[in-house]
Amino acid sequence: MTEAEFRQELKCLNGGYVLYGEEDYLKFSYSREAQKYVLDGMLDDFNHIVIYGEEFTPFGLSNALATLPMMSEKKLVEIRGVDFNSLKKDEIKELEEALMSMEENSSHTVLIIRADSNYFNAGRLPKAPSELYKMMSKYLKMVQFDFPTPARLRSWILKHFSKWEIGIDASLCDKMVDICGHDMWALSNEIEKLCAYAKMNNLSVITINEIDNVCCKTVEYDDFRLTNALLDRNKDLVFETLRRQKATHEPPFSILSSVIRLYMEMYLVSIHFASGMNKTQISEALGIHEFKVGKYINAISGVNPKRLERAVELCREADVKSKSYSNMVSYIPVERLISSLCALFCR
User: Fold this and answer.
1) For the domain bounded by 150-214, which CATH number is listed?
2) CB proximity list for 272: less than 8 A, separation 6 or greater
3) How far is the C-alpha of 291 from the C-alpha of 224, rounded, in Å?
4) Which of 36, 199, 305, 335 is 20–30 Å from 165 (CA)?
5) pLDDT at 295
6) 130-175 pLDDT, tens digit each
């Protein structure tokens, strides 16, 4: 189920839902919207059950689902902050047993599981979903929340300013993203600051001056920054990004997995592109967003296929070596891999 489909279903929620994907802000926003439609304002403290990660157990979930709503047609059960990636096989089995009761309880209970992006691995959709995803999808509706496109993000920013009755030019929305970053939590906070400043100073329109003077500037040193730098073959930015990720204690396995995924996907795209498939066909065949496929095609233009094969081999070797390190916080495998890849591709 897409975000748009879930939005259409908000007024008649029925059964259970897993809100998963990359954009955590949207999951928060939609779970809050769901409360408005499920709860009727009568004894909401009794009919809104929230189970947080530290207190979550499958047995506790079973009890919450089976409890009848108090003087109301329905109740809402929410699961937040559970690290599903850390669940053991027996715990997953117990979770499935709890979810089996969802169908018989759906007449009086709506379940929303807010799966944080770092705590839920959906696998490679749609062709290779994870075992956890496949299990949950048997009993619950899976709702995917991706990072918004630039156009969608611009529209969202404009809408937020409109709620405050403050005007802003669409081009300045892009400027805000450049300054503050793509994170919707951070952007939401910066918009509130700007609007409060405008109200306090009797301003009806936000200009570049207010953005420069009020907004906090953010340099995004994340997986996308690193992989984009690798795609652009910008060696200086690659190593500066890696340095900042180490300084902020980004887990080395997270960095390594993003780099390996980048070159594996690029290699697969190169094979399909060489066979004569276009961008849309490759996107459908591999389950990779068409925009990303286009970036890969641009990146491999003029690149010797042997270099891509060597990059994949380097990634395989780094993956094997990383698993042999007794110290799981070692950055050595990822540093060696990135150095080798830069030697292959970067200026």
Assistant:
1) 1.10.8.60
2) 281, 282, 285, 286
3) 14
4) 36
5) 86
6) 899 999 999 999 999 988 888 888 999 999 999 999 999 998 998 8
For CA atoms 257, 260, 266, 272, the dihedral sign is negative
Provide the 10 A C-beta neighbour count for residue 85: 13
pLDDT tens digit sequence for 245-293: 776 667 787 788 888 989 999 999 999 999 999 989 998 888 888 888 8
Domain boundaries, the chain: 3-145, 150-214, 223-345
Task: State both tokens at 194.
Answer: 């700007």
Instruction: Give the single-character DSSP code of 68.
Output: P
CA 310 – CA 340 distance, rounded (Å): 10
Residue recorded with tokens 């997270």: 254
Q: Note if the pTM is more than 0.85.
A: no
Helix residue spans in 125-207 (DSSP H): 131-137, 150-163, 170-180, 184-200
State the Cα torsion 25-27-153-188 to the nearest 10°.
-30
Q: How far is 153 from 160, CA to CA, in rounded Å?
A: 11
Cα separation of 276 and 77, whole Å? 50
Distances 226 to 23, 105, 123, 275 between C-alpha atoms, Å = 19, 46, 22, 29
CATH classification code of 3-145: 3.40.50.300
> Rounded to whole angstroms, how far apart are CA atoms 50 and 52?
6
In CATH, the number for domain 223-345 is: 1.20.272.10
